[in-house]
Amino acid sequence: MAGKPKLHYFNARGRMESIRWLLAAVGVEFEEKHMKTREDLEKLRKDGVLMFQQVPMVEIDGMKLVQTRAIFNYIANKHNLYGKDIKERALIDMYTEGIVDLNELVLIHPFLPPGEREASLTQIKDKAKNRYFPAFEKVLKSHGQDYLVGNRLSKGDILLVELLYNVEELDPSAITSFPLLQALKTRISNLPTVKKFLQPGSQRKPPVDDKCREEAKNIFH
Asked: Which domains does the chain have, with CATH numbers?
């Protein structure tokens, strides 16, 4: 029997957080090996377990997977979060790419120099409210179903709800004009596995603070 997936990253959200969301949503318990220093990252590199010399890296089913989207897709395929056919997978991938585009801005935001954060926040709010959220609201309205694709839960739904939470931390009014996104957020949040992940004390990471910024600086710079 395969052991629990092991997640290699530093003790923060970053690109690993979406992977945590996916694993948690499908009820898979996982372990974390946190890097704390530059030496921890260099050791992984010297051990030859980082194909492209970078994290996140997930040990799962005898593999050492890198590249965030590859990890998404493996989890989605394994746990039936990837549609029923090639057309549905194409739509799920398309939506996921849009989600990741905006989430990248959100993830980078707290690590920017203080003087750059105001402009970053303005950009995030504008893109969320005027580009990405209207697009996803339109998708949900177009078919009137509970989920983005095929009326069944997919990686796109989970990652979109993670994004909604992330943006709302920066702008609490972010989805007030999008009733279908609000409904999707509620629906996903009420799934027992997700509800558990959203509780205090879970492996969900808190917003970035000064300690996290300093740790990231020590590891990656």
From this structure: 6-79+197-208 (3.40.30.10), 86-190 (1.20.1050.10)
